[in-house]
Amino acid sequence: MIGTGMIGRDHIRRVTDVVTGAQVVAVTDIDVERAKEIASTIDARVLPTGHDVINDPLVDAVVVTSWGPTHAEYVLAAIAAGKPVFCEKPLATAAEDGLRIVEAEQAFGRRLVQVGFMRRYDAGYRAMKRVIDSGEIGAPLLMHCVHRNQSVPQTYHSDMAVQDTAVHEIDIIRWLLDDDIVSTQVITPRRTANRFGHLQDPQVMLFETSGGVRIDLEVFVNCQYGYDIQCETVGETGTVRLPDPADVWLRSAGQLRTGVLQDWQQRFAAAFDREFTEWVASIADGRLCGPSAWDGYATALISDATTEARHTGRVVTLARPDRPAFYAT
Amino acid sequence: MIGTGMIGRDHIRRVTDVVTGAQVVAVTDIDVERAKEIASTIDARVLPTGHDVINDPLVDAVVVTSWGPTHAEYVLAAIAAGKPVFCEKPLATAAEDGLRIVEAEQAFGRRLVQVGFMRRYDAGYRAMKRVIDSGEIGAPLLMHCVHRNQSVPQTYHSDMAVQDTAVHEIDIIRWLLDDDIVSTQVITPRRTANRFGHLQDPQVMLFETSGGVRIDLEVFVNCQYGYDIQCETVGETGTVRLPDPADVWLRSAGQLRTGVLQDWQQRFAAAFDREFTEWVASIADGRLCGPSAWDGYATALISDATTEARHTGRVVTLARPDRPAFYAT
Amino acid sequence: MIGTGMIGRDHIRRVTDVVTGAQVVAVTDIDVERAKEIASTIDARVLPTGHDVINDPLVDAVVVTSWGPTHAEYVLAAIAAGKPVFCEKPLATAAEDGLRIVEAEQAFGRRLVQVGFMRRYDAGYRAMKRVIDSGEIGAPLLMHCVHRNQSVPQTYHSDMAVQDTAVHEIDIIRWLLDDDIVSTQVITPRRTANRFGHLQDPQVMLFETSGGVRIDLEVFVNCQYGYDIQCETVGETGTVRLPDPADVWLRSAGQLRTGVLQDWQQRFAAAFDREFTEWVASIADGRLCGPSAWDGYATALISDATTEARHTGRVVTLARPDRPAFYAT
Amino acid sequence: MIGTGMIGRDHIRRVTDVVTGAQVVAVTDIDVERAKEIASTIDARVLPTGHDVINDPLVDAVVVTSWGPTHAEYVLAAIAAGKPVFCEKPLATAAEDGLRIVEAEQAFGRRLVQVGFMRRYDAGYRAMKRVIDSGEIGAPLLMHCVHRNQSVPQTYHSDMAVQDTAVHEIDIIRWLLDDDIVSTQVITPRRTANRFGHLQDPQVMLFETSGGVRIDLEVFVNCQYGYDIQCETVGETGTVRLPDPADVWLRSAGQLRTGVLQDWQQRFAAAFDREFTEWVASIADGRLCGPSAWDGYATALISDATTEARHTGRVVTLARPDRPAFYAT
């Protein structure tokens, strides 16, 4: 485990308590005390650097949850060591680093990299993909997506609405439609009063795929009422929509009501568990099949274009990247 | 219009403002001032008694909304006068009076009487009946029914849970299943604290039809949160359930919620309108087809048996009344 | 009644059978036989032209449901005659005609014109407006709207997606937000295969109000599965969404399901009835309060700009029209 | 693992693949070949009898999933060996055996027994219990419960509707209300045609708790359409209801629909996983807290009374069993 911040500690707990067939044997963090504290609870060693973790002979696979700008370096080192590596998004903060990873992995000759796009493991999105792939709603034409957070801290700035938030939507759109995004635009409504002054919130992002599907995505990270992910795909003969998470229904005081989740940990807890369970199983099988380095790279290209679209106020088009056969699904 | 109490005035407004093809020309009430007040707003005459209304040559059809114990007398008089009569429930407070009405109407030779079971005009119950009749859920085996009021006044006593409240459920069960109830039982849970001391609230009534369908009915008239009518019919291959009334959905403060109606006027407003619209049209056609005197009589027999069942704590069985061919559906 | 086509006949039936306090006394149509046929069923006279209807001394108020290009002429004539006039949309097929109507009505000095935007009478939209106006979801920031038809005939062409279909959405957006649209853009996804060749279907329209609210509207008129109107307004602290129309719920064959309506007559039947009921009552009161000539004119300006936006592929901005005090809400 | 039938194999998979901190080291089954087959896949030993498993020094805790009549013997043996034992329901097929277990465990002085009432680990029931305990709906007065299976095999007979099926409902009712059932009655509707001839299906069971709460429970094991568990608790000020399991919503062919689960494995998969995860954790903690031997015994008393109620057609009352302080919650 490289990185023991919030998401890192959550993954350590997951590997230790939830996933069978795996064990955390070594951790590192730039904050050594933090690393020691968590390591002591799980009987793991603390190593000085990420490279020490990667090259430790007891380590069969690497999880990278350190600071984003360090991801590419560790992923490349893991490839060099021939070890499977799970990297939280972003795979790389610069697209060219993503490309280097893609090239390194192909040169190695076998998939080693998985990127932490956990939504692909959510039961709702999986059911939606089955419906789309079955042809039950005909060919997709449109998607309506909503990503809402209850609130974000002051450190969250306008570019993060794409880089940190919409990136999950971009991946899931690509995966659901089995297509790439080739045009992007950002619309900026009146800002909510419930935000820090520097932040454009909400934002509406408009995407177009190479096949002509149009997607609108609302990103609203201070919606106050809860954490809410919505997605509807409109096909030629029908539509399919994510359900709201199931909770008990109350009737009281003139209302029929149910709870809305408050954070992504609740919303995607089962997806994270399944993501790691399947990742560990796929390593044992020798057949990685989750979100690939290519997905990380392609998503970064679209994120960068979307950031440019917001800064310029223009529609930004992308050449559809030419996916190597190595990454064929 | 015989009777200008709350429901009477509501029907006067309905005939005047909602229904086309009818006009209130004469009203009466034991409270003459009340009758005068309402009559003055609609340009109708006030007559001394219900019999004067019935026999007035300008009156083509009679609506009886007076005090329950007077209903049978006026309905019989209307039959004697050969005029269509709409009678709010109960048709008669004693079953033998109901039988006299049924016999008088048959002697007259043509249907004149309609009883105010407005639920048959509700869009949800009608859709449920279509589903049942279509065979889409197979033969019915069970029904689960719920009748909840926000609260009732002190004058409401335990027998009224059957005579005033469950009577609507009994009619709709008979109509939906096209069958009669032949056994009845009342179960008395712990009483809610939110009631006047004399009242058994809630009550659970258990019915069995001649065809072996079993029905459980919750009557809870001080449920606090609203007016709520639920009904599910369980058949051999599926179930059909009333929808909750449609209202906008809000997401705020950690909840997803919609409104619950607060009274029967809101819940059945459209049903009442349709009831009168169809009744007036059926008079013009000369073919009454709504809930009949027979339905009023049969329902009274079941209500009486259910009252006895609560008083004795026993299962009470009824012989299935032998419906005259005159009342064949 | 000027015009006895499908919508005209439906309004004739409505005035005759549903609305109290009004009666159809004269009709006209360019197809005289059609006019005679309907007139004979309701005991109304057939007059040669719309102007004869307007000027008939027995006619207190005029309903215009003739061919769109003739609307402005009849509305202006009704104003000249000082008679209330209900005009189906469009108020005018050219914006300058709309302006002439607005000016003529102001010159007359009292409101005479109502435009047939029936959605304002739908219970769901009314509940949504109450929620927005109450401040319960904070200031609106975004709206997500969907308009889907099961299918359209070959005569339906791409401009009609705005002029005939989206015009209702444009009106309801203006009304819900009490604001005007000042920018418009049209996005064209891949076309469904289930359409006649000339038609761009679906279309996504993007609007911005003078207050900075952004709206996305999907218009998809060959969606195959039904007639489906959706609307969600996103505010600073919560959201409000139209309910799906209530229908019974079935559980059978591995599914939980309810019906989707198939046409606008079903979806807005109650709204049409309420529209006419309130219009007739407002004439009796002498205080017209429904959608005004100004609404018809402003909506036409936005429709025209949206048509231009689709033709040019560009964002089209409008100056916010300066609403005369005469039309203050 | 004592017993390698369907549920036994499922628990072996669960301990092996899902739960961390536990490992299957020894299995037994009367069908030795079946035991060998499963043991070979998980590197466990096959022992001749359940007693060999219980007394094996490598075995820290025992899971009993053998044939029901053998449960009590193995549970008593585990207590004698001082080892935690998880026993699938029933704890004992005769109530007096349940009592012997309860006495033996008390004599041992510490809880060792947990019974497999997995519903207590279902997220929906847990949320319902939180709502009830919070006082949010006031004191409970009524419960409406439904248990439906798609179909059952010919070996399923009428008593199993209580002993195998309703037993889970009985436990969850006791747990939700923190009360015991003191009266029971069975109502037998017309039988569905979709069953083997010997079976009474559906059945309606009526329970009363010592606190006066009344419960109706539909058990319908050949409902054809799916596996469906419903539960609504009605309190003095409101109600709480289980949600339907979340699945994507489709709009197509005139319907809005979602899937209904087909079997209990899908419905309670997460509950089973949590049950074992918490059980294993509680052994490590030395503090068993799941459904106890007392719960198994009390539930058996109610099941037996309910069976008698169906056979006799009468209401059967039970003395409320006097729960030892040892089993205080």
TrEMBL record, chains A, B, C, D:
Residues 1-117 form the Gfo/Idh/MocA-like oxidoreductase N-terminal domain. One of its GO terms (molecular function) is nucleotide binding. The keyword Oxidoreductase applies. InterPro entries: Gfo-Idh-MocA_inositol_DH, Gfo/Idh/MocA-like_OxRdtase_C, Gfo/Idh/MocA-like_OxRdtase_N, MI/DCI_dehydrogenase, NAD(P)-bd_dom_sf. It is an enzyme of class 1 (oxidoreductase). Keywords: NAD, Oxidoreductase. Its EC number is 1.1.1.18. The keyword Iron does not apply. Belongs to the Gfo/Idh/MocA family. Homotetramer. This is Inositol 2-dehydrogenase. It comes from Amycolatopsis taiwanensis. The gene is iolG.
